Amino acid sequence: MILPVLKDIFGAALQTLVSDTDVYTDMIRPSQDPKFGDYQANMAMPLAKILVKPPREIAQKIVEQLDINNTCTPPPVSSVEIAGPGFINLRLNDDFIQTLLYKAVADEDRLAIPAVDSDKRKIYLVDYSGPNVAKPMHVGHIRSTVIGNALARMLRFQGHYVITDNHLGDWGTQFGMIIHGYKNYLDKEAYQNNPVEELSRLYCLVRQKIDEETKAGMERSAMTDTNAVALQETAKLHAGDPENLKIWQEVLPHSQDEINRIYGRLQISFDHTLGESFYQPMLADVVENLLQRNIAVETEGAVGIFFENEKVPMLIRKSDGAFLYGTTDLATVKYRLDSFKPHAILYVVDFRQSQHFDHLFKAVRLMGVNEVELAHVKFGTVLGEDGKPFKTRSGDTVGLNGLLDEAERRAYTIVKENDKDSTPESELRETARRIGIGAIIYADLSQNRESDYVFSYDKMLAMTGNTATYMQYAFARVRSIFAKGNVDVEKLRSVVSRSACGAHCVVSHPAERALALELLKFGEAVDLALRDYRPNVLTSYLFELSNRYSVFFEQCPVLKAESDALRTSRLLLCDLTARTLQKGLELLGIETVERM
């Protein structure tokens, strides 16, 4: 990695000017235009306000203090130039680039990206996906699921200890609706043949009745209001009613099995799956503890937590004695702190829950928990091409299983049409699975997570542009070079282990050098993506890497290179590109394909 070396150099130089150097070394960035060098340090302007001196004068002082020759061998920087109001432009030494390339090529596991030091290693708990068990997963669940999975993978790659928890909705009102439907509208034969489909039908039926009654403005009564009946069934379940508990225990495994099948298709697993029902026995004690500590107060029979300068409290017990989502979340935080002792808890939940998490975090701070990072990793909505939330033609929310099926079907059509080698059907199907599923995951992760995005199969499966298909194609193109040239990859890599440092990593051509620099920014991209929990930073990096490789491929002959040494060097660059793409996609939860 390049950036840590440059930060060390500038950190030493800045010690004569300021005490907190980290703030300013974070202002070193890759140059946007190669004509300004490879990296640019932009700390002179903000320092000018503190030191009350012209930025160029400060930039000059910093440059004079830089020890660019004695930091390591070979020296990292070949030239330093002050430009404009005080930008410090840096051009890297080609020998330094080649040395870092050598280390990356030689490290098959981590590509020479170091894990965090032990003293900086943290315990992260990532809470994501969290579907309601009683109803099928739909398109809205894709965002939390793939964003959370990507963050967990990247944090683990950094060297942190990560605990993933799927906080299932297995105890809420939706079960009252299912129980009411089960008791009154169950088709026993359909239930025996396909329990998940029948449970889904029951849920939709009860939901429809509630909506129709709401629109009709019916007078509410226990006999006519379906919503009131469903709420009663929920209350009976929570109170331990034997019949309702029996139904709940019967239908729950069927729903969980269906959810797990979808996770299997997405190649996603969790360390823990602790639903709302797990915390139910803890809720009464949570409320009593908060009352005793005067954090919560009782008003007209209800219990809530009031926050300074806010009119709306966080209710944790209703006047009828029922608990709420906030109560469950407070119990969940306490359990996690006691059981896992995390340094950070990330909640990957959509933006509509922003106020809930704002209140939850404030309540946790009132409880005296101040050292743990609490982050709401919020995200926007999946839209249809009409700009509205993505629905089926009938107006129903699009089911996630059907979404994945359609992506695989379309990917298979593309793969089949492009197959020139009579590839076995099983291989075509597996390739289509990886391309289809990868396309959906990447299309989501490549967005700014807080923005809404328009779902389009055609765009996400395109062979050009910032898509998983383009990345997978770039990887497959590298592999095809090895196949065409009959290159033994393991033998190629062994050349590096037997050679002198840097002997087989040459960056004499501008396209070689540009590709090499991009390859060496992989670790920086992962770090930057996790700074604010934004996977799209990594997708942007992979897209840029693929573009750099495309230019390199066009301008630098590989198999027909001018000499054997140059051929080996360029093959190593190709191999490192493929491995970097593969690792980057793996961190996003996407599989590569050998050929397309």
Describe this structure in words.
This protein has 596 residues and is α/β, with parallel strands linked by helices. Among the domains are: 90 residues, Arginyl tRNA synthetase N-terminal domain (Gyrase A, domain 2, 2-Layer Sandwich), CATH 3.30.1360; 96 residues, no CATH class. It has 24 helices and 13 strands. The strands form four sheets. A four-stranded antiparallel β-sheet has the order 1-2-4-3. β3 and β4 form a beta hairpin. It starts with a helix and ends in a 9-residue tail after the last helix.
List the helices and strands and how they pair.
Blueprint: H1 3-14, H2 22-25, E1 28-30, E2 39-41, H3 44-51, H4 55-65, E3 77-83, E4 87-92, H5 94-106, E5 123-127, H6 141-158, E6 161-165, H7 173-185, H8 188-193, H9 195-216, H10 226-238, H11 242-265, H12 276-279, H13 283-292, E7 297-299, E8 302-305, E9 314-317, H14 325-340, E10 344-347, H15 354-366, E11 373-376, E12 382-383, H16 400-418, H17 425-445, E13 453-454, H18 457-460, H19 468-484, H20 489-498, H21 510-519, H22 522-531, H23 536-555, H24 564-587
Parallel strand pairs: 5-6, 5-10, 10-11, 12-13
Antiparallel strand pairs: 1-2, 2-4, 3-4, 7-8, 8-9
Helix pairs in contact: 1-4, 3-4, 5-21, 7-9, 7-10, 10-11, 14-15, 16-17, 19-24, 21-23, 21-24, 22-23, 23-24
Q: Between the first and last Cα atoms, what is the distance in angstroms?
A: 32 Å
Helix content: 40-55%
Low-confidence spans: pLDDT under 50, at least 5 residues?
none
Percentage beta strand = 5-15%
Q: Within the largest sheet, what's the order of strands?
A: 1-2-4-3
How many beta strands in the DSSP annotation? 13
Morphology call? globular
Gyration radius, to the nearest Å? Answer: 28 Å
Helix count, per DSSP?
24
Main sheet: strands, sense, barrel: 4 strands, antiparallel
Overall average residue pLDDT: 92
Q: Assign the structural class, choosing from mainly alpha, mainly beta, alpha/beta, alpha+beta, or little secondary structure.
A: alpha/beta
What is the oligomer described by this structure? single chain
